[in-house]
Amino acid sequence: MADVARIAGVSHQTVSRVLNGHPNVKAETRTRVEMAIDELGYRRNSSARALVTRRTSVIGVVAFDPTLYGPASTLGGIERAARAAGYFLSVVTLQTVTREAVREAMDYLAQQSVEGYIVIAPLRTVVDGLVDLPYGRPVVAVEGGQAPDLPVVCVDQPGGAYLATRHLLELGHRTVHHVAGPHDWLESEGRVAGWRRALEEAGAPVHEPLSGDWRPREGYELGRRLAEDREVTSVFVANDQMALGVLRALGETGVRVPQEVSVVGFDDVPEAEFFTPPLTTVAQDFSEVGQRSIALLLSLLEESDSPGTAPKRDVVPARLITRQSTATPSTR
């Protein structure tokens, strides 16, 4: 910083004000300082800054299975929002999720002096592992369902499933079959709840959901079972990857989509509009989830400095995207 000040012909305090975006710096002076910074390739020493401010500007993130579209997109949204807010991320990715694994991950992050935690918590075991943590730092659970006494940011999973199911019922289908996600996933629970509510409100028959593992192979196997039932005219699938498997299974068995069976997915993956046929699905705004997660965590950090009231739950609306995989029913 002293070198930058010398080249720019200003004090090191002025350099500090420019770096911190202080408004009381003349435009000409700010330009000279910025040119000196570029010439020297100056970057702040985050360790030295942390010693002075006692703030590391590092947020710890515990993530799960980045091979799945939802968790991976959520992590991407959090990273972009953190960078925009001037924070760094330290990420621990769990391949298997147990209460012990979650706590070990947070112990590891605590050693890096993170200011707070964001935990992508799609499984009930993850949420259970966050209760009564001893770390003394704020925690935000992303997709934490109805976790009591825990700050949560989540997509309206029941609402999205309700929209998908109502769409099929309004097209004239007598009922809607459901290919659900794994039993212990909170997102799966929410989507089952929204699907069931829409059917019950309409007085439609409620068949037992078929549970899969989020992946296309499982959707394919369950789709073959659905293809054998000639009473099936519409299917709500809990994610687009399984919906891809269902579409292939129906096609291989000679069932036409949407003429004979309508299919709706969930997630709106980038490839969904290029499925055959293009998939009607429910979109989740992962960028908005990331922004609200960071905003909630920062509000909790401010609250720890000066007591106040921060929102404890923030729900991001889901949105139905209608494409060519749904239509009015016809006789199979």
From TrEMBL:
Presence of keyword Flavoprotein: no
Keyword terms of this UniProt record: DNA-binding, Transcription, Transcription regulation
Polar residues biased stretches: 322-332
Disordered as annotated region, ranges: 304-332
Pfam families: LacI, Peripla_BP_3
A GO molecular-function descriptor: transcription cis-regulatory region binding
Domain HTH lacI-type: 1-53
PANTHER family to which the protein is assigned, alphabetical: HTH-TYPE TRANSCRIPTIONAL REGULATOR GALS, LACI-RELATED TRANSCRIPTIONAL REPRESSOR
Protein name in the entry: LacI family DNA-binding transcriptional regulator
Species per Swiss-Prot/TrEMBL record: Halostreptopolyspora alba
